[in-house]
């Protein structure tokens, strides 16, 4: 939880302030454009940007207030609208296409139905998917299973099953702090199309081989994986991204909480290059990222063509 303390420094300055949230979203586009990013999927939990929803202790608590400093009620819908407005203006000004994924939070199942409703309401208006994040280790053990195996709240399962029925794209944080079985649960129970992090999938050959055979895409965040302690890179032990690259797994490189980690995408690429990823492998991560994005088909095709052209590669579609 030490990693999360950084949020307690800057989030209080924007929580509940719709104007600040819109401005932050706009500046996100500016920063992405400066890094040469042409498409990005930003994810956030709207409830954590509402007054009284954030606590430094566990990053999860919410009281019943949800009012700004003037006593005005602020809804999760208004937060999404503010974010969308900032992204739309940023896209017009800087050219980077931004789509968003709304996050459920483990341990707060009472938020999940509302988050799915927002995904439905804003589908086609910038929101392209749903996620669930949070501490895997905090989940309850399943009776009859080893103590480290965890279960999801029934509300979260129902929400992701409904999302699948409705064609809402799904990604799940799994196998970062929790065991490889959490990746399996994400794929089979929550119907995940992508896996956030997933490093510990390497601890179970059967699950890992399943992921390789099915082309499961892993969203890797090298810097945060070390800072959170989910990965230890020491001596001759390589980072999981090196194994992914060696085995031809589908993975991409992303920033994770760049304000906290003080990194950008170029830093992440440089770190991976230091570990031994080649330029061709880094190019492949970008192609994999776009292939597995939740972008509209026309946008996906257009950007893939740009990538193949920029890299001097034959379009494989």
Automatic annotation (TrEMBL):
<dbReference type="GO" id="GO:0046103">
    <property type="term" value="P:inosine biosynthetic process"/>
</dbReference>
<dbReference type="InterPro" id="IPR032466">
    <property type="entry name" value="Metal_Hydrolase"/>
</dbReference>
<dbReference type="GO" id="GO:0004000">
    <property type="term" value="F:adenosine deaminase activity"/>
</dbReference>
<dbReference type="GO" id="GO:0006154">
    <property type="term" value="P:adenosine catabolic process"/>
</dbReference>
<dbReference type="GO" id="GO:0060169">
    <property type="term" value="P:negative regulation of adenosine receptor signaling pathway"/>
</dbReference>
<dbReference type="GO" id="GO:0009168">
    <property type="term" value="P:purine ribonucleoside monophosphate biosynthetic process"/>
</dbReference>
<dbReference type="GO" id="GO:0009897">
    <property type="term" value="C:external side of plasma membrane"/>
</dbReference>
<comment type="similarity">
    <text>Belongs to the metallo-dependent hydrolases superfamily. Adenosine and AMP deaminases family.</text>
</comment>
<keyword id="KW-0479">Metal-binding</keyword>
<dbReference type="GO" id="GO:0005829">
    <property type="term" value="C:cytosol"/>
</dbReference>
<dbReference type="InterPro" id="IPR006330">
    <property type="entry name" value="Ado/ade_deaminase"/>
</dbReference>
<dbReference type="GO" id="GO:0046872">
    <property type="term" value="F:metal ion binding"/>
</dbReference>
<dbReference type="GO" id="GO:0043103">
    <property type="term" value="P:hypoxanthine salvage"/>
</dbReference>
<feature type="domain" description="Adenosine deaminase">
    <location>
        <begin position="2"/>
        <end position="308"/>
    </location>
</feature>
<keyword id="KW-0862">Zinc</keyword>
<keyword id="KW-0378">Hydrolase</keyword>
<dbReference type="InterPro" id="IPR001365">
    <property type="entry name" value="A_deaminase_dom"/>
</dbReference>
<dbReference type="InterPro" id="IPR006650">
    <property type="entry name" value="A/AMP_deam_AS"/>
</dbReference>
<protein>
    <recommendedName>
        <fullName>Adenosine deaminase</fullName>
        <ecNumber>3.5.4.4</ecNumber>
    </recommendedName>
</protein>
<dbReference type="Pfam" id="PF00962">
    <property type="entry name" value="A_deaminase"/>
</dbReference>
């Amino acid at each position: 939880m030490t990693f999360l303390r950084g949020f307690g420094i800057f989030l209080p300055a924007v929580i509940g302030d719709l104007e600040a949230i819109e401005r932050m979203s706009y500046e996100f586009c500016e920063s992405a454009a400066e890094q040469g990013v042409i498409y990005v999927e930003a994810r956030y939990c709207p409830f954590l940007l509402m007054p009284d929803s954030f606590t430094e202790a566990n990053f999860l608590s919410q009281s019943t207030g949800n009012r700004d400093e003037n006593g005005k009620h602020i809804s999760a819908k208004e937060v999404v609208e503010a974010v969308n407005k900032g992204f739309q203006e940023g896209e017009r000004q800087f050219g980077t296409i931004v789509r968003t994924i709304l996050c459920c939070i483990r341990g707060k199942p009472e938020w999940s139905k509302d988050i799915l409703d927002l995904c439905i309401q804003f589908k086609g208006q910038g929101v392209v998917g749903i996620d669930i994040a949070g501490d895997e280790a905090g989940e309850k053990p399943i009776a009859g299973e080893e103590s480290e195996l965890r279960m999801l709240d029934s509300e979260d399962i129902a929400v992701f099953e409904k999302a699948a029925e409705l064609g809402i794209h799904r990604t799940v944080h799994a196998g970062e702090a929790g065991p490889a079985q959490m990746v399996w649960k994400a794929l089979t129970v929550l119907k995940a199309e992508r896996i956030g992090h997933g490093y510990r999938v390497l601890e179970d050959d059967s699950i890992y081989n399943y992921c390789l055979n099915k082309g499961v895409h892993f969203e890797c965040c090298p810097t945060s994986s070390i800072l959170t302690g989910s990965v230890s890179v020491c001596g001759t032990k390589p980072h999981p991204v090196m194994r992914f690259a060696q085995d031809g797994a589908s993975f991409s490189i992303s920033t994770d909480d760049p304000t906290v980690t003080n990194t950008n995408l170029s830093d992440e690429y440089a770190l991976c290059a230091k570990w031994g990823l080649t330029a061709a492998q880094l190019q492949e991560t970008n192609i994999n990222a776009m292939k597995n994005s939740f972008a509209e088909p026309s946008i996906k095709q257009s950007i893939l063509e740009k990538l193949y052209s920029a890299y001097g590669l034959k379009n494989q579609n």
